[in-house]
Amino acid sequence: MLSYEAVIGLEIHVHLLTASKLFCSCPATFGAEPNEQVCEVCAAMPGALPRLNERAVELAARAGLALHCALNEVSFFSRKNYFYPDLPNGYQTSQYVPPICEGGYLEVTTGESTRRIGITRIHMEDDAGKCLHGQAGSTLVDLNRAGTPLIEIVTEPDLRSSEEAAACMRQIHALLVYLGVTDGNMEEGSLRCDANVSLRPRGATVYGTRAEIKNINSFRNVQRAIDFEIERQEARLKDGGSIAQETRLFDAARQVTLAMRDKEDAHDYRYFPTPDLPPVLVSGEQIRLWRESLPELPAARARRFVESLGLSREEAAILTVDRPTADYFEQAAGFGGQPRRIANLMAGELLRECASSGLSPDKAKMTPDHLSELARLIEDGALSPRMAHEIFPDLFASGISPGTYIRQRNLAQLSDAGALEAVVDAVLAANPEEAAGYRGGRSKLLSFFIGQVMSRTKGQANPALAKDLLVRKLG
Ligand code: ADP
Ligand code: MG
Ligand code: ZN
């Protein structure tokens, strides 16, 4: 049976976090009443001229530097012509050749595998407005979004599974939010992508014909849309059919992709350099300054967490999802305690509480020094891991320091050998048959005894100490 390999490339559209639009001074914020944020330029009145927003150039460059692209000191805007009611100019102003950034890469991690995915280019462009389809077949146009700044990040066809494509989209999202390039708000459409999908027989070196699925707005949908598309193409190819090069839509409700139109080629858009804007000039000196101002990137930070703090790759990835999380972890580790234990408490407990209360770690009442204190209480044997797990929601909700909390409630773990010995003696006296069984070779009974000690002390016994005492007394 012939088996196929999926080949996937993404075009990711990202809203830049600027105060104003790309070519005028209208606010670029989301959520205003329809057509409140519109002027002559973004409504394309005759004679109105665009002026480029410098902040948008800086943010596009930042994205490019973070994705290891080369920055072009000279790039251009072109007109990409097409007709749609939400596009008042009749063209989108977009960078064609050359764009501001070219030739980068991103290390994409899925599970334990990390692969380098090429970035073909990043270009700037303006967004279109929105059509609001109302009752009785009427359609209204809202131009608030028209002219807001986007970058499009185009990957090489290097992705090989829907899972990897979703991971790529997630990682780009996390990276660009981290850098303040975008607010990354998925509900407001700050990041959308088109997925290009083709199949080829495993081992083949040429690519098959691709279909392009437009306008996918969530990580989950990118995976589902690609899964569906791979199955659709595979079924066709196995039937002896061929794949049409076309543009498709993902219908999230029905979980299918639907043919929309034949794929257009670049020449269909009649790209030509816009006469309204000068070339985009960025000096080498400026590029150097931008490069120097980049913070430590999440991938480098994750590597440092693995190499110098001993975290697993998975923990490091979880703790570098965003800046507040990574900063919180580093602060906690700075207050003392084993970094691995702190990472464990953070990934296992704190982030879960944060997620369920909708808080980012920096807004939590539980501060990094409290987390560090909790880790140290466990390490010193004052608190069992199980007890820490049980009291965590309370600590998180109250903001009380862990030391104070366990003192107030008398929860300190029984690490006192004398006190514990009395409990161990009582347990052995109450279970003579099991004791005889253990001495007769049924060594598995040890965990029964540990369980008894734990239950008599309501979980407060230090398990390691209880075990030592039991082994000694039974031996
Ligand atoms: P456009 O879609 O605007 O025509 P390109 O031809 O440059 O632009 O391709 C856009 C995207 O399609 C890129 O992400 C690229 O990696 C991907 N792509 C190109 N060829 C294939 C293919 N055979 N299979 C899957 N993806 C592909
Ligand atoms: Mg395309
Ligand atoms: Zn405007």
Features:
single chain; 475 residues; alpha+beta; Arc Repressor Mutant, subunit A; 3-stranded antiparallel β-sheet; 15 helices; 40% helix; elongated; binds zinc ion
Notes on the structure:
With 475 residues, the protein is of the alpha+beta class. It has 3 domains: 4-287, no CATH class; 296-408, no CATH class; 417-474, Arc Repressor Mutant, subunit A (Orthogonal Bundle), CATH 1.10.10. Helices cover 40% and strands 20% of the residues. The protein has helices spanning 54-66, 162-178, 219-238, 284-293, 298-309, 313-319, 323-334, 339-357, 368-379, 385-398, 402-408, 417-430, 432-439, 445-456, 463-474, and strands at residues 4-15, 70-71, 74-75, 78-81, 91-94, 101-110, 113-126, 130-133, 139-142, 149-155, 191-201, 211-216, 246-251, 256-262, 272-273, 280-281. The strands form 4 sheets. The protein has a 9-stranded mixed sheet. A 3-stranded antiparallel sheet has the order 5-4-15, with no helix packed on it. The longest helix is centred in the middle third of the chain and has 20 residues, at 219-238. The mean pLDDT is 93. Adenosine-5'-diphosphate is lined by residues 7-11, 154-157, 196-198, 207-208, 210, 212.
